[in-house]
Amino acid sequence: MKQKALLLFPVPALVLYGAFFVLPAVQGLQYSTTDWDGYSPSFQNVGLDNFRRVVTADDQFSNALGNNLKFLLTVVLGQTVLALFLAVLLAARSRGSTWLRGLFFLPTILSSVSVAFVWKFIYDPNFGLADQLLRPLGVTSSYLGDEQKAVFFVGFAQIWFHAGQMMIIYLAGINQIPAELYEAARTDGAGRWQQFRHITWPLVAPATALVVAYTTIQSFKAFDLILGLAGNPPRSALDILSTRIYTTFANNQLGYAAAESVVFMLAIALVTWLQNRATRLAHR
Amino acid sequence: MKTGRRALLGFYSLIVIVPLLVVVGGSFKTTQQLFDSPFGLPTHPTLDNYDTVLRQQNLLRVLGNSITVVAVSVPVTLILASLTAYAAARLPGWWGRVVFGIFAAGLAVPAQAMMIPQYVQFDRLGLRNSLTGLMLINVVVTLPVAVFILTGFMRTLPQELYEAAELDGAGAWTTFRKIAVPLSFPSLAATSIFLVVMHWNDLLYPLLFIDDPAKRTLPLALLDFQGEYLTDYPLLFTGVVVASVPMVLAYAFLQRHFVAGITAGSVKG
């Protein structure tokens, strides 16, 4: 009786979600089989031709995919290691550690475009902070101007942006490890590295799985950071999948952009699945 | 070991904080002063950058747009999502799981997979170039993650609480308002902060929907700066400061809730 009233509670959310989320997602699939340009009243149904072109014959798309994978790898490795490292250093509760957690988390609340501008200045080839600090050490680079390495430099910006967020997830995992385990290990004469290797690392496996999964999704969605650093549309050295799809769309190839976004979604699903398996193996 | 740990933490603190201080300091410098001494305090602080950005770029208007959008889209998302989460947590058998599953599935769909049909749809409904359109899309796009977080919390509340209230004659609506909502307060606070950060910082949908400069939100206006000022860093930095100060101030006072909210929302990426 009362439970019937409960059935009405999700209705407003379901109506909006159905109309503006589910329906467009399904229409996206439908668009992806057409050559629609977005404004003409008529269009052709081209079957799977768009997909064939995305997968086999589109250099811009495969370039974006390659960049995205390089970016993903840099960020997943760099950010996961840094986040775990910071979490281990800050695991002990003290006033200083609480304060530093707050500081390391701070970049996460900024907008991507703001973070992009901060790093644009760090990487400025003439006056940038990186150049000012590293040139005296004999390290020089054109940073974002370096066609080969630009995407890795954007990766560092992304790590600075979100490492604090992932550190918090690791801290939650580390706090669940019983202190007795460490005490017992110390009694047995285990050093810091051994304690980390045999207690912390295996027991934070669930946190690693989360961090890697979240970081992966973020790396596919780093759209705003790229546009802020590279401009819209970004040049090909900094083009990733999400910016590629947006550019195709902005060039009035709606049907083809829809096909790209279907492939994009499948790529995310595939990489997430592979990583899930890899994380499980790494923590054995 | 202790000093090693301190040195490492100190080093990373500098990496985080120095660029931010350079940005804040730079917003009070001329380009020449910034290039001559990026790390120094502004010796002759100038407010010209703020004047340019706030007056010529009409950034106050933009700031107002951002506030208006967030002020509507966050409470609406929160109300719709908590109603849904309450039902998902309380509906018996597979009903609850179906409601939850429908929304949770949305977490796997990236915005890029929907944005093209959404663009067409909002265009036809006359909701492009309108703040209402931005509010609506914010609500829709963040419903899945909000329902996900809130259902997770509401499921941990003991059913007996509701049943006791209902024995006393309270209906589903009363139990929701008098029991579920007050008890879910920490989760509602965390979710609302996550939503504020998401909606405040979103760039994709404003970029997609807004051509009219008078309807821009902060991230979109900042992106336009990039095209207009290129390497006039003091102006770019001033934009960053204006866009970030509200969030950073709120973070200073509500840090715990920010951390809880953004961590809970990490599932959205």
Automatic annotation (TrEMBL), chain A:
Localization of this protein: Cell membrane
Membrane protein topology class: Multi-pass membrane protein
One annotated Gene Ontology cellular component of this protein: plasma membrane
Transmembrane segments: 71-91, 103-123, 150-172, 199-217, 254-274
Domain ABC transmembrane type-1: 65-275
InterPro entries for the chain: ABC_transporter_permease (IPR051393), MetI-like (IPR000515), MetI-like_sf (IPR035906)
One GO BP annotation of this record: transmembrane transport
Alphabetic keyword roster: Cell membrane, Membrane, Transmembrane, Transmembrane helix, Transport
Pfam families: BPD_transp_1
Record-stated family: Belongs to the binding-protein-dependent transport system permease family.
The protein's name: Sugar ABC transporter permease
Automatic annotation (TrEMBL), chain B:
Topology relative to the membrane: Multi-pass membrane protein
Protein localization: Cell membrane
Keywords from the named record: Cell membrane, Membrane, Transmembrane, Transmembrane helix, Transport
CC per GO annotation: plasma membrane
Gene3D superfamilies given in the database record: MetI-like
CDD domains reported for this sequence: TM_PBP2
Chief localization: membrane
BP GO terms, sorted: transmembrane transport
Entry-linked Pfam families: BPD_transp_1
Keyword Magnesium assigned: no
Domain ABC transmembrane type-1: 63-254
SUPFAM superfamilies, per database record: MetI-like
Sequence intervals crossing the membrane: 7-28, 67-87, 94-115, 135-158, 179-200, 233-254
Family designation: Belongs to the binding-protein-dependent transport system permease family.
PANTHER family tied to this protein: ABC TRANSPORTER PERMEASE PROTEIN MG189-RELATED, ABC TRANSPORTER PERMEASE PROTEIN MG189-RELATED-RELATED
Listed name of the protein: Sugar ABC transporter permease
Taxonomic source organism: Paractinoplanes tereljensis
Source taxonomy: Bacteria, Bacillati, Actinomycetota, Actinomycetes, Micromonosporales
